[in-house]
Amino acid sequence: MQVAFIIDSSYFIAAFLFIYGLKQMSSPRSARAGIVLAGVGMVIAVLASFLYSLDVRPEAKPMLQTNMLLALVALSLGLGWAWWSGKKVAMTAMPQMVALYNGMGGGAAAAIAAIELSGYQTHGSISLLLAVLGGLIGAVSLSGSLIAWAKLDGRINKTLRMTGLQLINGSLLLVLGGVAIYIVWQGGQVSQWLFLAFFAMALLYGVMMTMPIGGADMPVVISLYNAFTGLAVGFEGYVLNNPALMIAGMVVGSAGTMLTLLMAKAMNRSVRNVLFSNFGAAADDGEQNISGSQKPIEASDAAINMRYAGKVIIAPGYGLAVAQAQHKLFEFVELLQAAGVEVKFAIHPVAGRMPGHMNVLLAEAGVPYDLIFDMEEINSEFKEADVAIVIGANDTVNPSARTNKSSPIYGMPVLNVDQARQVYVIKRGQGKGYSGVENELFFADNCQLIYGDAQKVLAAMLQAVKNLESS
Amino acid sequence: MDYQSMLLTGFVALYIFMLAAFAGFEIIGRVPAILHTPLMSGSNFIHGIVVVGALWALLNASNLTQQIIGFIGVLLGAGNAAGGYVVTERMLEMFKPSTNTKSKE
């Protein structure tokens, strides 16, 4: 049997396992099996690729042994580092880690493009065009993802905003497009320096495009770059005549685009808005007249009230995860359940740092996923709840998003916690939310605030209920 | 046996791209929000297949520049694939239904 046949069939199996695995991942029951299947596909494809060594270009023959060694070293280094870093990263830091790995994929696609272009032999202008485009998109995805990672990881705090930035970015993109067309026009026979300049400009564009985007919008951007990398991989797959890359890349390209749109929709922002406008800019206008006052309550009193409630709904936010309080929270929930209280979790689509992030954080603490409800599922139930407790969330429970047209978050769907009989809010201080908007929920008659670190407050609540049971 | 890899150019490539794109849309469109983060990470893992292309490029490198770029490509691609797998698997492993209540779906 010929080598080419073995390689082709391994790619076929890998492509099948990728798509089937991704499909399995779309339900929480089979998701685990899905990623394992896709992983098997990846291992098969990578092993089969070593068969390439039996049939390399004639001019590469003399260097084959060195190249094999280089490949093995690069593979083990990349694998080892990624495995180690992936195992130790905290669940709260997951979004930036995904950004980092995604950037690496974009970089790999750009590297393929660079090699193909540097030793270009005519395969036709479509192939050349896709090589150039894939390289461009891959490089933008690499530098953009790195900026996104640095921002979410708190390594860059500045948000670059200057007038005319759109203009500079626009012209940069035009120049990039022009150079790309020129390269294709010349059949790839241009100076190596032009290629170098091309990739340098693409990297610069990725940086400039990502710098002005604020932290809250970052998940949408990461998802977008994920789609970008997929597209770049698909294009390079065409250049290499490799169906596994073409299929996997294009599936991720479209799935990533869809996911980006879903995320943007959940935040009530269009992708265009995320990329080209500044979130904080409009937050200052719109004077707010909020009547009432913030009423504090002791953690223990709130806990005992919940112990005797019939139904409690919990609305967690990123603050919960930052305080690492999800384990304490679940302990408290189990105590309430033991006392016969019905407890549910209400998850806003953008709770955490990206859609679904809060589910992961709760799952980490052992909260079963059938206690967790999406906003649409649970919003009508707040009316029947005796207590709604908000932990480390702010904008996602702000009722003025429903009513106050001048509010910058107007129109964003929010959790209707204000409709519960009693609302408790655990909060570190009297600060505002991510959007910088005052929350009128905190001033409502049925709302009481528990000040303090979520972890400490929940520990006090646990203690209060335990004392009650033992006395 | 006389087997030759088929050439995926022109319309054949276009059909592959189109069908793959629809498959991607269909798969993600029906996913509950609870799985969005793992799924983004999972699709991130899948484009780690780029390592295979980088491997081909490195094995066919015929000068120092190509070897350096190829090395970087394989390194980055391997990181993408391995990292994507580990974090996705870690997240999905944690999703468990409760044992006492009847689970939905």
TrEMBL record, chain A:
Name the top EC class: translocase
Tell me what topology the record assigns in the membrane: Multi-pass membrane protein
Q: What does this protein do?
A: The transhydrogenation between NADH and NADP is coupled to respiration and ATP hydrolysis and functions as a proton pump across the membrane.
Q: What is this protein called?
A: NAD(P) transhydrogenase subunit beta
Q: What family is reported?
A: Belongs to the PNT beta subunit family.
| SUPFAM superfamilies assigned to the protein according to its UniProt record, in alphabetical order | DHS-like NAD/FAD-binding domain
**What UniProt keywords are attached to this protein's entry?**
Cell inner membrane, Cell membrane, Membrane, NAD, NADP, Translocase, Transmembrane, Transmembrane helix
Taken from the UniProt entry, a GO cellular component term is: plasma membrane
Write down the chemical reaction(s) this protein catalyses: NAD(+) + NADPH + H(+)(in) = NADH + NADP(+) + H(+)(out)
Name the predominant localization. membrane
SUBUNIT field? Heterodimer of an alpha and a beta chain.
Residue stretches making up the NADP transhydrogenase beta-like domain: 9-463
Q: Where in the cell is it found?
A: Cell inner membrane
An MF annotation (GO) of this entry: proton-translocating NAD(P)+ transhydrogenase activity
Q: What is its EC number?
A: 7.1.1.1
Q: Name one Pfam family in it.
A: PNTB
**Chain ranges passing through the membrane:** 6-22, 34-54, 66-86, 98-120, 126-150, 162-184, 190-208, 220-239, 245-264
What InterPro entries has UniProt attached to this entry? Answer: DHS-like_NAD/FAD-binding_dom (IPR029035), NADH_DH_b (IPR012136), PNTB-like (IPR034300)
Q: What is the protein's species of origin?
A: Rheinheimera riviphila
Name the domain of life this protein comes from.
Answer: Bacteria
UniProtKB/TrEMBL annotation, chain B:
Protein name in the entry = proton-translocating NAD(P)(+) transhydrogenase
Which residues are listed as membrane-spanning?
6-25, 45-62, 68-87
Domain of life according to the entry: Bacteria
EC number of this enzyme? 7.1.1.1
Q: Which UniProt keywords apply?
A: Cell inner membrane, Cell membrane, Membrane, NAD, NADP, Translocase, Transmembrane, Transmembrane helix
Q: Which GO terms describe its biological process?
A: NADPH regeneration
What membrane topology is annotated for this entry?
A: Multi-pass membrane protein
Q: What does this protein do?
A: The transhydrogenation between NADH and NADP is coupled to respiration and ATP hydrolysis and functions as a proton pump across the membrane.
What InterPro entries does the entry give? NADP_transhyd_a_C
Q: NAD(P) transhydrogenase alpha subunit C-terminal domain spans which residues?
A: 14-96
